[in-house]
Queue: 2 jobs
Job 1
Amino acid sequence: QAGCQTFIIHARKAWLKGLSPKQNREVPPLNYEVVRQIKTDFPHLQIVLNGGIKTVAAITDHLAWADGVMIGREAYANPYLLAEIQKSIYGTESVLLREEVIARFIPYVESQLQQGLKLSSLTRHILGLYQHIPG
């Protein structure tokens, strides 16, 4: 009634007592069906699913019924997932290879180091760039 038409719904119930914030991200089970039922009950609302989405295949499955998905921690743990999404979901023909990302990142790092920024402040954001890649 207030006019909100978009809802980002986390599929995991938060336990306010007895669990740490980290445990709350892992212990309560994900329940995508509850969010799906909300979309069914309120089809005129824009429903964006959040929680535990880690692959392009999962994104595709959820987009069959949800208006959008939120990629949270997985984008930080595995940043190259964003390139995979760009190619698979948005149809971009060519995305940068991981090596190209690093090659473009180096001049930025050099400029930031000259301004006094710590190397670890920059590189911590790319630690997962080669996640799941042998060698």
Note: The longest helix spans residues 98-114.
Job 2
Amino acid sequence: MQQKMIETTAKTKEEAIEIALKELDADRSGVEIDIVSEGKAGILGLGSEPAKVRVTLLEATNDLVKVTSEVLDSLLSRLEVSVVVNLVQADSSEVGGPVFDVQGEDSGLLIGRRGETLKSLQFLLKSIVGRRLQTRANLLLDVEGYQQRRYQTLTNMANRVADRVTSSGRSVPLEPMPPDERRIIHLAVAEHPHVISESAGYGDGRQVILRLADD
């Protein structure tokens, strides 16, 4: 899928992205953007470092990426927030589809308390895209990398709890989580030699329980 890739530097990552887009003669929905370095402002100009980005032009934008980009742009326009949308991956093996990251001065408004606003926005996005394409829309919407940080936190927690289960021999139920977060827990524990995970409960109360594999 990848055709051409360039790296650019500028004072900010947004400036570096815009430079790359102009060189590639493309818009954000037709490229993958990798932030190599956020850059540093420095003090009085000392110790400053430019931001660096790697932008890859895609040969063709698939229907899921195209429709998701259009719907997401429309939703954010209606919300009247000052943000930009970056296509991080066109086809993530973990997600089973594209990964988008929203950045900008109003990004915090899109995350909400404990990520509830972001979850609702992703649910709405997937529903609309799924209806338009008449199929299940596998995609991930992130805001300033919040979701990825959350997933890493869950992975670390799952490993700590698994060690506790191993040492105590007692099963440990985790707090109720949405499907995507339960999946992260299951993946984190999948390779553990002594602990397994299983889901229990219904609806919003569904949770993951970690227990010894030989229980």
Note: The two ends are 46 Å apart (CA to CA).
